[in-house]
Amino acid sequence: MKVAIYTRVSTDHEDQLSSLKHQEEYYIEYCHKKGYEIYKIYADEGLSGTSAKREKFLEMLHDAGVDAIIKKNGRIEFELSDRKPKFEMIITKDVSRFARNINAIEIVRALKRKGVYIFFENADLSTKMNDWEFRLGLFLLFSQQESIDRSKKVRFGKLQRAKKGHYKMSVVLFGYEYDKQNDKYVVNEEEAAIVREIFDMYTNQNKGTKIIAKELNQRGIKTRRGKKWDGEAVKRLLTNEKYIGKVIVHRYTKPDVMSSARYIERDPSEWVILENAIPAIIDEETWKKAQEIMESRVQFSKTGRKVGAKTGESDFYKKLICAKCGAYFTRVSTTKMRKKLNAVIKEYNYFCRNRRIYGTCDMKGISHNTLEREIMNFVQSKILHEMIKKKDYEKQMYEMLMNIQKRKMESVEKEREKIQNEINEIGAQIDKLYDTFLTNENSQLLLEATQRKIEQLERKRKKLEREKMKYDMSYIEEENQQIQRSYQKIQEYAEKERYTFEEILAMIQKIVVYEETEEGRELEFYFNLPTMLAYIFEDEIEDVETEIIPHSWKIQIK
Ligand SMILES: [Zn+2]
Questions:
Q1: pLDDT (tens digit per residue) in 257-270
Q2: Which residues surround ligand 1, an ion (CB under 5 A)?
Q3: Cα of 109 to ligand 1 centre, how many Å?
Q4: Cβ neighbours, 10 Å, residue 528
């Protein structure tokens, strides 16, 4: 049997590169013993716990006949090619080496469809097994736990620092610049003038966001990212509270297990608001006026859904995909006079964007009513069933998660103590360096070297101090509560008799709409069913678009 070997080493430890060599030697012998023929060894180097480049991994998928396609939103999708796989099995040491995110399951599924199995050596797990998905989930749970803890600590540390008034923007906001020397944000006067002008146009000149964007573009003004302005960008600017000096941290969280959204806004009571964190560009009165105008332009439809300036998004915004050209569908509303009812009725239809705007696609549109009807029918039968089916599995996940939390709570004091000891030890080292070298008459060279060493130790001490802060009981308890809430919700979902349309929408990841044929029309549903597994991958959210295991089904409609 022809096999491929996949290995991965982290290069953040110096001695790891030599371990790559050892791994290779090991597998050559291993395969020799088993009578396997090695097609190729694919070895990636990268930092552990990050989504570092994994060229060899992608190359291996390609050789297995699976294409990884990077979508515009950065998400990677896996598609089967017509190529024959160059091997029948992939051997890899353990799950975390193979794939650190939820894509693992998607990848395994794609490989299986090409007839390629994976053997995870440490876990003694082959994807040939019937219950591989469940087993893989469990192993992921363990192997990811460490990296989750690490990233949660980092985030918690960020919050603690933010509470103390330190704040970092990942991209410096338009109107500001970062003063490296003094470690603070200062006003960029040239840009600030434009910000004031935008607020003035909106609040005093009665100009809309789109008109403002147009004017800015005409004058050749670019956004912070060097792009053209559009209505949305102007709207974001006008609603940004940073312009009055206010910085809100701890505002967004990872998506709830029930939602397919990327980020979720926390309850405002949980926000940490830092007043005067950065210099204001706009006075509060003007800013408030802008918000009021924005609010007043939002209308409510009869069903209570917001329409107009603020949302402008349809129920299926970025969820309907054209099978022909891959573009999203956009909503088109038409008003019809119903003479019998003597009423004006608004109807919604969705059309492929490429057809609607560029005329480069000829996919037929689909009505909102058809979609809603088909989805409701489908969900009431299939999804409910699916939720019931995985109830036990979710229970096991939940119990395991709670066990891990319990262990964490038990070790909080111990961990704190351990770190404190390390801090003390470093303190003693620093004292010693001061005593022995800095007070004596030493050469300049030795003095400088000693100083550098002390600085290095100080940095290490600070790092440990931050680390210590993260071992905090209330933080872990907050986590516990969140896990419990999610689990309750999952159980609740499994016991429901019906879902509301809103609940269903939250679970829909995407729907691929196929062409109409004589037999009817196919719709392919992708659902992100709520699962406790979401907790395992939450640390990936900032760099990789993480998905809760997608389930997809195709249905035929008449
Ligand atoms: Zn199309």
A1: 554 455 566 666 66
A2: 322, 324-325, 327, 352, 354, 361, 363
A3: 27
A4: 22
